[in-house]
Every structure is written in C-alpha cells, then in structure tokens.
Amino acid sequence: MSHPELFCPEFALLLGALLSFACAAIGTKARTAWLVSLAAAIITVGTSALALPYQGHPFATDIYAVDSFSQVLKLGISLALAFAIAISQRQDSTRASARTEVHFFFYLSALGMMMLVSATELLTLYIALELSAYGLYILAALHRRERLGSEAAAKYILFGAAASAISLYGISLIYGAAQTTYIPAIAASGGSPLLIAGVVLTLAGVLYKLAAFPVHSWAPDTYQGAPHEASTFLATASKVAAVGLLLRVLSMAGGNTEHLRTMLIVVAILSMSVGNLSALFQKDFKRLLGFSAVAHAGYLLLGLLSFSKLGAAAAIFYVLTYVPIVVCAFLVVAAVSHNGANPSIASLAGLYKRSPFLGLVLLVAMFGLAGIPPTPGLAGKWFLFSAVIDAGHLWLVLVAAVNATISLYYYLLVVKAAYLDPPGEYPDIKLSPTYSITAFVSVALVVFMGFYPAPIWSMASSAAAVLF
Amino acid sequence: MTLEGALLLGLMLFSLGLYAVLARRNLIGILIGIELMLNAANINFLAFNYFIPTDPAVAQIIVLVVIGLAAAEAAIALAIILKLYRQRNSVDVDAMQLLRSTGAEASNE
Amino acid sequence: MSELPILSILLLCPLVAFLVTLVLPESKATAIKAVNAVAGLVTLVLSVIVWAQYDETAGGYQMVEDIPWVADLGIRYTVAVDGVSVVLTLLNAIVFFTGVLSMWTLEKRVKEFFAFMGLLVFGVFGVFISLDIFVFFFFYEVAVLPMYPLIAIWGSTRKEYSAMKLTLFLMVGSALLFPGLIALFVESGGQTWNLVALSEPGTFSEGFQIFVYPLLYVGFGILAGMWPFHSWSPIGHVAAPTAVSMLHAGVLMKLGAFGILRIAIGVLPLGAAYWAPTFAFMATVGIVYGAFVAMRQTDFKYVIGFSSVSHMGIVLLGLNTLGIDGTNGAVFQMFAHGVMTALFFSAVGFIYDQTHDRDIRHFGGLVGQIPVASSFFIVAALCGMGVPGFASFWAELLVFIEALRVFPLLGIAAIAGLIFTAAYILRVLGQAIFGPKNPDWDHLVEPTAWLTLPRIILIAVLLFFGFAPSVMLDMIGSVTGGK
Amino acid sequence: MSSTSIGLVLLGAPLMAFFVALVVFRKNHLAAMMTVLLSGAATCASAVFLLATKGGTPAEQASRAWIHAGGTSIEFGILLDGKTLIMGTVVSVITLCVQVYSLSYMSHDPGRGRFFAFLALFEWAMLSFVYSPSLMQTFVFWELVGLSSFFLIGFWYRKPSAIAAAKKAFIMTRIGDVGLFIGLILLFQTAHTLDIQTLNTMSVATGNFDSGRIELITLLLFVGIVGKSAQFPLHTWLPDAMEGPTPVSALLHSATMVAAGVFLFARFHPLFMQAELTLTVVLCVATFTAVLSSTMAMVASDMKRVFAYSSISQLGFMLMGLGAGSLFAGYFHLTTHAIFKALLFLCAGAFIHEYGTNDTVAIGRAGARKLRVITLGLIIGGGALAGFPLLAGFFSKELIIHSLHDKPLFLAGAYLASFMTAYYTFRVIFLVVFPNQDSAVQVEEPPADSHDDHHSSSLPLHAPILLLTVGAIAVGWFGDSIASVLGLVAYHPSLPEMAPAIGVALGGILIAWFDFGRKSAPQTGFISKLAPLHTLFKNGWYLDVIYKKLFVGAAQAVAGLLFGTENHVLDKASDMLGQGTLTIGETTGKAQSGRLPLYIGLAALCFSGAIIALGLEMMR
Amino acid sequence: MSLHFAIAAVVSLVGALLAVTQANILHAVFGLAIALVGVAGVFFTLDSPFVAIMEVLIYVGGIAVTMIFAVMLSSVSNPKERESAGRRLLAALVAVAFFVGGALVIAHADFGPGKKLPPSAWGLEQVGRDLLGRFNLAFETLSIVLLLAIVGAIVIVRKESAMPANADEEAS
Fold this sequence. Notes:
By secondary structure, chain A is mostly helical. Chain A has 19 helices and no strands. In chain A, 74% of the residues lie in helices and 0% in strands. Chain B is mainly α. Chain B has helices at 3-23, 27-51, 56-88. Chain A binds chain E through residues 21, 24, 59-60, 63-64, 95-98, 101, 104-105, 108, 111-112, 115, 123-124, 127-128, 130-131, 134-135, 137-138, 141-142, 144-148, 153, 173, 176-177, 179, 192-194, 197, 284, 339-342, and chain E through 105, 108-112, 114, 133-138, 141-142, 144-145, 148-149, 151-152, 155-156, 158-163, 168-172.
C-alpha cells in the first residue's frame, strides 16, 4: 500500500468495525456500543470530509481509485452511516439479542460501499458489492419481530444472490470480451456487442442495489421488514453506493451506449411508474418509502442514462441531497414507532400536535421527496431533467414529471395524516436529544441545500468530471 | 473442446440454476440454483482464460474469490433459512407472504 | 435607483414573518397575527415605493440584483422588476395585507396558518421579480404547495378532496413546465437561464418555438384557470378559507398568466403567434363557459369560482391577441380581477363565517340585514360585471378592443359574454342580497372596523384605478410600449 | 366664472351629493335628502345658466386625456354645444322636479336616504353622458346610467318583482350595450378617435369610411339605442320597470334614461345620415315600435303602464323623426316629451300615492278628480301627449309627421300611432275625470306600489306638477329658440299640412269620449269587442312569453348543458383520470404479492428479454 | 482432453439436472455435489487444477455439506413437496429464454485471438503472487467477508434470550 492516508475513510470504518466487534466480544451494554459506534461514525464523517480532496491509488495501479468521484460519494455514505447510527439510538425495532452487534454490520457494509465507489477493477468491485450486501442481509434479519425480519432477509438475500449471480455471469462475459478486469482498460476496449451483453447482465446486481425495475421488488418488502435503522441505511447509503457503482459499470460500455440507453430508458420509466403507482395504496409508512425508493431509482437513472457529465453530476447531486431527506423520513418512522412496530400512515395522525417538530421534519421529508422547494428535491429533479433534455429526450422528462405529480399524491396523504387528522388516542411523542439533534441537522441540511445548492452541485460536478 | 462448447456448458448450468431459482418452493432449492449460476459464471471465467488468455492468473483468482464468497453467502442464507424455519416450521418460499402489498381495502396494521 | 436591495427586502419580508411565526408559540395568536399584519403592511409600503421608484419612461428591468446561485450551471439569483412585475407585486402586497386582516378572527391553528400563508406569499413575490428561469420555477413551486395544507386544514366542503385535486392539477401544470422550461436552457446552448438573454430574437428556431410553446402555455395556463383545465379552481375556491381564496384567485392564478406573458410569450414569440388563434379560441370559450356555468351554481363561492374562470379567460384572450392594448388590458385585468376577487371572497367569507352557509337560495335581502357587509359584495359584483368606474372596466375594454381587431369573431363572442356575466351576477344579487328577507339571518352582525378595513382598502383600490386608469396603464405600458 | 368651471359644478355637484348622501343617509335621512336637493338645484341652475349664456354660440369643449389606448388618448371632459345644452337643461330640470316631488312622495319610506343618493348618482351619470365630448365617455356613463337605473328600479329590493324588473332592465339594455360597444370599438379602429365633434365631421365623402363600414357601425350603434330607448324587440323591460317608485319612472322613462338612446342618435346624426340602410332599419323599427306599443297602451289598465307603453311609442316617434332626417323634429319631440311625460308620471304617482292602487278605473272611481291640481296636470299632459293642438306635443309631433311626408308607409304608421295615442291618453283622462261607478268594468289589479296610508297633497308634490304643467303648455312655442340653439332653422308646417294629424288626434279623442267619456259609456275600449286582439294587446303581443321561452329558455338550457358538462365531463374526466391512476396503482401494488419467485421471475424475464434482444441485434 | 472435458461436462450437467429436478431436497443437494465435482473436472481440463481442488474442497466439502445439515435441520417435515407443473413450465420458459438469448450472444460473439503465454503464467505460483500482490485488497476483503458471514450467521441464528412474551410476534 503506497499511500495509506488515501484509504483513511475506510480505515475509520475499519476502526469502527473493530471497536463494535470489541464491544460485542466483551459484551458491553447496547448503549455503550451505540455511543462508541456513534463516535466512530462521526469520526468517519470527519475523515471523509477531510479526505475529499485526496487523489491517488493506495493499491496496485488501477485496482482502486481515490479521486473526487469516490471521495464525494464516500462522504455521502459516511453521512448516511452516521445518520443511521444516530437513529439506532432507539433500537426498539432491533432484536434485543443483537443490539450490541448490529453496528459491526453497519460498518462492514459501509466499508463495502466505500470500496465499491473506489473500485476500478471487476474483482474488487464484485467483492465490494458482496461485502456491502452481506452486511445488509444480516441487518435485515434482525427485526425485533423475527418473522418479519427473517422473511425480509430471506427475500433480500435470495433475490440478491440471484441478481449477483446474473451479474457475475455478466462480468464473466465482460472479461471474455475485453480479456481484462480493469475498468479503464475495458472502457478503452471499444464496446463490442458481447461486452454490452455483459454490461447488461451486470446491471442486474447494480440495479438491485439501486432498487430499480425489474429487480426492485425486494425494496418495499425489505424496507418494511428490516429494523428501522437498517432500513435507513439501506435506503440512503445503498443508493449512494449504487449510483457510484452504476456510473462505473456504465462507463465500461466505452461510448457504445445506444442499446444501453434504450434499456435504461425503459428501466427508468418502469421504475418511476411502478414505484409511484404502487405506493399510492400503501398503508405501511416504511413500505411506502420502499416504493418511493423504487421511483427515485427511476429518477436517478434519468441522469445516468444521459451518459454525460451533466447527467452524472445531476445523479450524484440528487443522491447526495436524497440522503438527508430520506433520513428525515426514517427518523420519523423510528421516533413514531412503538415497541418496534412499523408505523402505518394512519399512526402518523396528529403528528403536528403530538410533536410539532417531528411534524415539520416529516413535512420537509415529504416535500423533499416530492421535489417541492425549499428542499433540494426540486433542484435535483431540475438538474436531472436538464441532463435528459440535453441528451435529447424531452418526452422522457414529461413522463418523469407526470410521475412526480403522481408521487405527490401519496406524499401528501402522509402530510395529510400528520397535519389534518386528529391525534386520536395516539400519545404525544417526546424526542430524545439525539433524535432532536439528528432531526435538526438533517432538516437544516435539507433546507440549506434547497436554498443554496451550489456547494453540493460543485462537489457533484467535480465528481462527475472524473468520469467524463 | 472449444470455447463455445465450454461457454455453452456454462450457459446450460446457468439456465438450470435459473430454473431452480424460479421453480423451487424450498428455499434451499433456490439456494442450490444460485450456486449453479455462480458456477456457470466460474466456468465462463476459466474458459475465457483458457482459450483466449491474456492474464491467466486473474480468472483463477476471481473463481477462488467467488467460491469463498459463495461459501459466506451460503452461510448467511442458510442461517436465515434456519431462523425462518424455526419460526414457521416451513422453508416454503410461498409461505413468505407476511411482507406484501394489500389492496385498498385491507391494512397492514 | 436606490442602493438598497429593495426587491430582496421585499422578498424577505414574508419569509421573516414566516420564521417569526414559526418561532412564536402557538398560544400567542394575536402576536402572530400582528407580526403578519405588520409584514403585510411593510410589503405594501415597499411595493408602493417600488412603484414610485420605477422609472416608467426608461422602462425595461430596473432595480436589478444579480448574485450567482449555482454558478456552474449558469443559475443566478437575478431579480428585477418591469412595469408588469411592479403592478403584480403591488397586487400581491395588497392581497396579503388585506388577507391577513380578513383572517383576524381565525382561532384554529393560527400559527401554522400564517406560516403557510407567509410561505405562499414569499413564493409569489419571488415569481414576480425573478428573471432566472430556475429561480422563477423555484418560487413558483414554493407558492403552489402551501395551498394544500391551507385548504385541507382550514377549508370546508370536501376540503381534502379539493385540496388534493387542486394540488395535483397544478402539479400537472408543473409537469408540463419542466420539459418546456429546461428545453429553453438546453436549446439556447446551455449557458444561461436568464429571461432577458433568452428573449433575444433569434435564440430559438421557429420550429422549436412551435413545439415548446404549448407546453409552457398549457403548463402555466392550468394555473391561470385555462379552459378546459380549470375545474380545480372553483372547487378549490369553494373549499378554501377566506384569505386563501383571496390569495388563490387574487394572486395565485395570476402567476399562471404572468408566466405565460413573461416566459411563454416573452421568450417564444413565434410560437405564440402560431398558437394564438387556438388558445384565443379556448380563452373565449372559457369566458362564455364560465359565465354560463356560474349561472347554474347555487353556492356563492362556486359562482365566484366560475366567474374567475370567465374573467381569467379575458386575461388569456388579451394575452393571446399579442397586441399592445390586449396585453395592457390583460395585465390590468389581472390586477383588477385580483383585487375584485379578493373583495368577493372577503365579502362572502364574512357572511360564511357567521352563517356557515353559502347556498344563495338560503339567503334573501341580506342588504337589509347587514347593509355594510352586503355592499362590499355588491361593489365586487359591479366590478365583476365590468361596470365603469371600477378598474376592471378599463381592463376588459382594452382586451376587447384588441380582440375585436385581431380575432373579430372571438371578440364578439367575448363581448357577448358580458350579457351572461350580468345575468349570473344579477341572479346572485337578486337572490341573496336583494329580495324578500330571510328571518333566519336577522341575527347577523356587521363587520367590525378591523374587518371592514381590508375591504375598504380593496374597494378604494378598485375605484382609484377605475377613475385613474392611466396611472396603471402608464406603468404597464412601460413594458408593452402602449403608453 | 368660466363655462368650464360651471360645467364642473354641473357634473361635480351630483357626484359629491351621492357620496355625502351615501355616507350620511344611514344616520340622517333628512340631511341626505337636503344634500341631494341642494346639489340638484345647483346643477339645474348651472344648466339653465349655461343654456342662457351659451345658447347659439359655437360649441366649446374642455377635456383632459383619460387613458391611452393604441397610441390614442381618450378624453374626459365636457362639451357645450346646442344639443348638450338643451338636453342637459331638460335633464336637470326634470331631475330637480322629481327630487322636489320625492320629498313628499318618499317622505315615509325607510330607504329614502338611499333613494336620494341614487337619484344623485343617476343625475351625475346622465349629465356626464349628455355633456360628454367623446364616445368613450358617452359609453362609460351610458353604462352607469344603466347601473343607477338598476338600483332605482330595484329600489324596493324586498319585492321580488322589483328586483326581477331591475334585472330585466339591466340585462336587456346590456344586450343593446354589447352592440354599442362593438360599434364603438369598430368606430375607434376606423376613425382612430372617439371625439364626437371630430367624428361628426367625418364622412364617406372625405374618405374616412367606406360605405359598408359606416352602415355596420351605425347599425351597431343603433342596437345600443334599441336597448336603451326600449325599441322593438328590446322594449319589454320598460313596462316592467314600472315596479320602481313612481318618481323613478318619471325621471327614467321621460327625459333621461330612455331618452339617452335618442340623444345618442341625435348626437351622431351626421353619421347616421350617411348610412342609408341603417336609416331604413331605424324607420322600420321605430314605426313598428310606435304602433306596437300603442296597441298595448290602449288596453293596459295600470295607469303607469299606459304611460310606459306610451313612452316606448313616443321614443319610436322621435326616432322616426330623426331617422327621416329631421334632427330638429326628433330633438324637439325629445324635449317636449320629456316635460309632458314627466308630468304624466308625476300625476300618476300622485294618484297612486293617494289611492293606493295603480288601476286607472279604481283611481277614477275613488274620486281622483277631487285632486284638482293633479287632474289638471293629467289633462294638460295628456293633451300634450295626444297632440292636442297648441299643447307641447302637438308641435313636435306635427314636425315629425311632416318629416315623413315623402315616406307614405311610415307616414301611415305615424298616423295610426298618433290616433291610438290620442285614444289611449284620453281613455285614461276620461276614466279619471268621468268615473262611471256603474260600468261593468272590474278593477283588475290589487292595490300596489305605495303601501303606507300617508296622504299628501303638500307643496313639494304640487309645485313640480304645476311647473311642468306650465311647461307642457308653453314649451311648444319655443321651437324656434330650440332650433336656434341647435343651430338649425325651425320648420313651420302650414295648417293644411297639419290638418290630417289634427284630425287623427281629434278622432282618437272622440272615440275615447265615445268609449269612456260620455255618460253611460261602457268604459270598455272598442278593442274589447275584438276579443282575440284585446287579449293579444293585453299580453303585450306575447313577446314576453316568447322571449322567456326562446331566449331565457335557451340561455338556461345552454347553462344547464354546460353545467352538466362541467360536472359530468370536465370535472368527471379529471376525477376519472385520478381514479384510473389509483386503480392502476392498486394493481401494480398488488402485483407486489410477496412471492419471491415472481419477483425473481420478473427480473429474469426482463434480463432474458434484454439478452435475446442483444443476441438478435448481434445476428444482424 | 476433449474427452475429459466431455465427461466432466456430462457429469456436471447430470448433477445439475438432478439438483434442480429432484423433489427430495436432500437428493437435490447430492445432485449439486455431483454437479460441482463435474465442474471441478471442467476446471481441471481448463488448466486450473488448483481452482478445481478448491472447488471440491470448499463447495463439495463445505457448502454442500452445510446445506445437507440445513436440510436435515429444516425440511424434514415435508421433504418431497413437488412444485406444480404450471410453475415448472413457467420457470422453464424463462430459463429457456435466457438460454436462447445467451446462446445467440455466444454464437455471434467475436472473441479475440488472445496471446500465447508461457506456462509460468498459469502456475500456482503466479496465482499466489497476484493474490497477495495485485489483488491483495480482494484477498483481505474476502477474509473480512468471511468474518462477517460467521458473526452474522451466529447473530442471526442466536436464540432470543430476553424476549418478552410473544405478544409482538405477529406481523406489525
């Protein structure tokens, strides 16, 4: 390893993993383990932020790239991790027996994701993909209501394993076509039809991570069945990593993007439509967020299918702003949840009265997801759509915008429950200081990004510049 | 023995695996299918390696790693399946209906 | 021109009110109302100052402030006013201030109400003064969404349904705007979102203009109550509480017409010319249609809601004439209709607050029971009929002059619509305000001074511009060139 | 004082009075009434003064730009020429008479303050209309006249019939207004000015218009006149407008509102004179109206209605005169008619007020002739209306008939109408003066209109009647002066020329005497012997019914249709769209059935499809 | 060589067929083991003996055995449940579709010529050098993955000791 400092966010994660493993090994109380993890997570965020400007190759050349692309996404991942761990303070949806250990999986999964966005070689990429996934498979299984957790995890892992097997098959074709596993070299090899076929099959695992059609079906089930903090992590960090991964994989096509683009357009439209339409009737809030995640995967694909710097930057911007917004939503889930049960939308009733601040957090989350200013949702969509129109697909934007309209319906139903329906017998909610601070930070981030998207955009833009 | 022949073998194994994943009700049956799919990919790697070599060590390393990953994956999957079995006394995939969308009339609550 | 960034200050006023409202505890209802009333007053004063400072002879955009926002993408916070913005800014300030006063008796969830209202007004100001398409759209969306909670929480009569319908309709409008607006940026070479730069002739080919114009026109048109996409509007009116109805019809619908004028027509004149006959036809249908449907309504607010469809049809017809007089008239009509409808809803809201009934058949001879409150309604009705002496007369006159020149047949149909307008308005007057009295409502009381004040202001504005239309027309004319 | 400042007083005083009265009337009725009365007096004095000083001198105009439209400014101001001076004076005199009269007449009405306020508003609108130097101002105040008449006709707003009548008046005149409005805009587009004096100097000959254009414009202007001056087919609002208080009828339906249309015609006489076709239309409509409404007047039992029909018919006369090209004849009749018709209405009002009924027969039987001053007024006014020689109406009507001498068809119509006029006027007079308690005629209508049992024969009631009686006798002799103010030369028909008309009038009076006046007269008109005709006339030729069925019905039907469209098509469409989306959503949502094989199957199917597509692509 | 390959291929296919068709899941696992041995044979013929050995050791010796344990522990209750014909048909259709697509791609793909390489490039030595050299990250990560899997499996299967009464066992 030539420049260890380039690897420092990952080291921070390894440290976190080590500490939580130590906590589990010596059997500390869950609360202590949580505090340790939170500290490590905050250190990770700090490290990632410090590491933003780093560039270089800590390992053998072309295996692992540290550049602004990877570092920006790593910052997103570490933020998501920190938020998820902060939310896990109230672990009442996690199995009592696993409360000390969960953070270990968070850290290793985050490590996998960070490696994922840096990997520039197929083997590294694949193993990082699996590492990030396995942690999540385990996390999903740890819901306090074991039947839910096991079912969620079983669906997640079996579907995931199948998808990753298809991916691996695709990778083998890529290898056959390019006879190398280095992504830059593959991209330079000229994009033979076999390579495209390989990339398409590889997309199975990648889209799976992104929760896009046709490999989206796990998302609602798993979001619903996993513990709240795991769902949070799944919904945020996983999306960030998936965007990075997808950009890398698509870059392998090396300019021969015609078929890929056609397929991605279909995938994007179906993701948006299926996600939004299916969300219309959901009663369970987490499940609704799962479908919403599918829809947002569709929006993200709009940027990716443009195969342009603008599109990539828009997708990265979108996913970075998406993190705090979704954190807001899951924070409400975790705070409202009683005895670890999943909150239904009906159980959000009267939130404005039960906890005015939480009501506001929910409002920000829903408006953010719907793309209503002053959240960055609008700017994000705007940039994505700009990229798509720049690529010449005006009608696709129309479809996407109609989808955004449809989505508004169910987001507003949530807002309605929180702001219109009387609290009934639901109790008041007292937020713990951790939750208040987390909520405040995430809302502040959202509103700041909404009013002043420029810094995030320049980050996203510099990240995209690496690829295009 | 040709490249196409080896690839075709891989493809057959893959398709059989896929069939198992889709047709099997037993969760372990699905897992078997997945293992077959992984092995199909492995055959591809080694076939390419053998017939059009540029860097013969890479494919072997990939296959080794994949075998390792498959083991880890199988361990986690089997743990989850066992947990599931303990709760429901069944490893039937069709029995996993707790997490699903209901219509407008019913509620998840 | 002043050194002070007066437009930004104006823009921040409602935002500050919003933040202060958020901070104040729910129990301090009067303080919240006072804060918003003061903010309303300040915006009113500021917009009058803006009016006074605007140099009509120089014309063009003035008081420009320009700060990069997302510099990499060419997005800049560019605000400025031209004559049209000045007029509509004043309108917004008037409606905001009088709206706050009209809601003085509100007791339910005061804090949230004024918070949402402040946000809405903030967005509307932003739209009227921004020159950057992205910033424009940003504020546009800020303005549209608070309608949902405002109607759904404080409304009446199928409020949740109506609020949802309204929001979704407007979002469909936005869905059309998204591709349209972004296409402008991309097609112009991806350098600037600035409206002035985009409006340069020759930026867009005719084919492109013809293709994109309907997206923008219909997208904005939905918000402007364009037939046949108007059905959200009356329903929303009916459900909304007084001040929200005032803002909705008074200001929000103007956003659509303003967008058409400034962006659709301003940037795509060739497309506008190509589509003008079609959209003028639809506007005329809207005028007549709204009047006829209003004739059969039994609910006060439905009548006014459809009258808005009809009156906004006049605005759209004026815009589609693409002529100086037509545009002048359209902008004037936006202003006049804004104030008039605010007065209408204010008057109806006052009656509804006491009776919880809006069926005109249940009333009769109200002018004998509450003469002052009724006369507010009568004045609004007269203005709605386009009676001379009120601002709307001149507005309609100018539109009709131009329409008759450009689209003679449509002009005649639109003018004939005046008959039906008179018919439905007199029907309401004859049924509810005049006629045999209904003893059920003998107990009604007259508005207090605080509640009278906003209505008096609105009437004064209507009369002022009715008697001195040139004040308004000179201001608008500084843009359209029709001084 | 310059004439402009006097003009300002003239126009400003009533407006001030309106606002002051509106503000104070709720507290103090008397103050409101006095304010208005004072302003009326001031206005009247100004008008008379102006007429006296400016009569016969060249026109004077003072105006300021009001708005800019299409590069041209539209003026607001005051124009003093012969037409406006006379008309303005007539209007203000009549208004003052009515105001004074109302002091007594409305003294016990709770809304009298409001009444006076709207009288002032009306006066302001009417005078601004009359003195207007531009067609735009004319139109603005034309509308305002309509508006204030709405409030005056609907003054008793508790009475549904009054409100209905007011609505009808407003809407029917507005139909005419639309025509006028379009005509105005066309005129503006053609001539690029709306200045009346400039417009009147324009002509086809000088190339300002082409002949088709001028026909179209004048025709459209005439549509407005038809509405305002209650000509066929838009005349039906006027009889209904009798629902208003009688002073309102006296004001609106004699000298002012209805006369506004005729005044407009006179105003644009030079333009109309260039439009052959329009003139023919005008003559046809006016003659037909004159005859038509006279037939209705012959059988109406309500005294005010008789006079209302008579107003319609006399307006037709004026338009006949004007349309035949004689500005003086029409204008002279406008003036005389204003006076004697106001007188008749005031008298009718006094009777109605006294006896609490509108029915002529009932009034007569109640002993109306005991009110001597009023009965005298009725007789003089009636005589003037009937064209009894040497009374006011006689001269002007002779001139009109004379102006028609080369148009035999219309002349015949004029004779017929004036015969009937004499007949129905004296029918009323005889019924009042020689009541026959024994006749079989039944009182038709229940007591109406004035419900208080206050009886008044005070000075405010009598003074205007006396004044107008004198006017009705005298004004006919001032034809020369009026002509000179107008800048015209009066024509004096010779006795033989007048003979037929006199004969016709006297014949009408004679038959009336035979039917109603003489002792043991049946007191039923000769028409009643022709039962179908009687019924036809009585029901206003069923025009109201037809309109109601045809136009109101059609409008209602369209409204119903569009209402249905709105609710069941447009609104429903969006609802269905939403519902459809929800249904699709439910389906896709349910497809998320929790079955893992289906999830993976979908994915595998899609990727198989993709790979097949790629394979096929590679084959090519 | 071709013969070896053919035998290995047939063995793996037969094993795979058994694995996917056998109603008894235990038989299916045995089928899998046979298939994996076949695959190892294929690896062997493809000049990768080390991988072939690892395949047999880890897959047959590890994974298949774990599966058998799992089967023993779980599906005894209903080992012979057969899927419905419709389901199998649909699954077969999808699988055949994939096969057809894949076959098309393979048949029409244009594989490069490759390079002639010295035998040293194939050797275990090179594999080991690369594994600890170029690909050390993957190698180290693999160890982390295995650690994760072990800990995860333990945490998942662990019995809940301090669970409250099964009141909340039902679906939320």
